[in-house]
Design brief:
about 325 residues; alpha/beta; Rossmann fold; seven-stranded parallel β-sheet; about 35% helix; globular
Length: about 325
């Protein structure tokens, strides 16, 4: 039988589930319940694998790792992002990479709105104030009637558009692939990124982390935003120049931010974001709801089963 390796089920999401049982019917399965700390440790786990079922983005499948896995033919990623895999090297080596698009769209979209409300209505600051004996009753921001800029219109972005419109916001969007047909289907106006940044009261990021989106929001882009604008990021930390964001928040160039993702995770102790009152921080938990987890685990197993049956599903790259 083929060898299937899960190199990184930590904290465990697959272990003990019906999807682990399904996976074990497809081949000889090894599950590691800790994270590989470097290339050597990851290779020690997957060097003999025919298939890898990847759970955590902290497992980095760079060219060196892939070249030293002579039997590897498929990496099935549980998750939407695949920035932890060298897609070009995988293609050169004949390794197929799949992901689980859309599995967490509802959950992540809800988190984006939750962060937006938390920042706009100062929920965290007010909670802290009450707990320390204060009764601060300053003004916060109403969102109905404001302009909502959605950056990226994949499965998550589409859901965010729907939710934004449902609370009475004027929604505009930016994508690499705009079209009149998509604009009509989503009920949204596609604009340039510059126009979106200049006109939006809230900007929410929903694009993949690929080389062309690294630091998509940098010092220049933050400078285009309104001083009362809020930035929401539930996608990947690499989309934002974090140092530029800290500076913009400290200097009041934007009003606030709601962040579920960071350049380095966990967020290091002493990081300046930890000390800013106009930021709401979340530990990369947007997709961590039972409904999304179960759907994603199942889709990643489906991708393996379909590969073994001779037809590919959800191939990336």
């Amino acid at each position: 039988m083929i060898t299937i390796v899960v190199p990184d089920d930590e904290p465990p999401v697959l272990t003990g589930t019906a999807q682990e049982e399904r996976l074990r019917k497809l081949g000889n399965v090894r599950v590691y319940k800790s994270r590989a700390l470097n290339d050597e440790e990851l290779l020690s786990r997957i060097a003999d694998a025919d298939i890898v079922y990847n759970i955590r983005s902290t497992s980095i499948f760079n060219k060196n790792v892939l070249e030293n896995c002579p039997r590897l033919k498929l990496i099935s990623i549980y998750g939407v992002g695949y920035d932890n895999v060298d897609i070009r090297a995988a293609a050169e080596l004949g390794i197929t990479v799949t992901n689980t698009p859309g599995y967490s769209a509802v959950a992540v979209a809800e988190m984006a709105l939750a962060l937006m409300f938390a920042v706009a209505r100062r929920l965290v600051q007010n909670d802290r104030a009450i707990r320390t004996g204060s009764w601060a009753r300053g003004y916060s921001s109403q969102l109905c009637g404001k302009t909502f800029g959605v950056v990226g219109t994949g499965n998550i972005g589409q859901r965010v558009i729907l939710l934004g419109k449902s609370i009475g916001m004027k929604v505009m969007a930016w994508t690499y692939h705009p079209s009149p047909q998509r604009a009509k289907e989503y009920g949204v106006e596609f604009v340039t990124l510059e126009k979106l940044l200049r006109q939006s009261d809230v900007v929410s990021l929903h694009v993949l982390a690929v080389p062309q989106t690294r630091n998509l929001i940098g010092e220049r882009e933050l400078g285009l935003m309104k001083r009362n604008a809020i930035l929401i990021n539930t996608a990947r930390g690499s989309l934002v120049d974090e140092a530029a964001l800290v500076k913009a928040l400290q200097e009041g160039k934007i009003a606030g931010a709601g962040l579920d993702v960071f350049a380095t995770e966990p967020l290091p102790l002493g990081h300046p974001l930890r000390n800013l009152e106009n930021v709401v921080l979340s530990p990369h938990t947007a997709a961590m709801v039972p409904e999304a987890t179960l759907a994603g685990l199942a889709m990643a197993v489906d991708n393996i089963a379909n590969y073994l049956e001779g037809h590919l599903t959800n191939v990336v790259g």
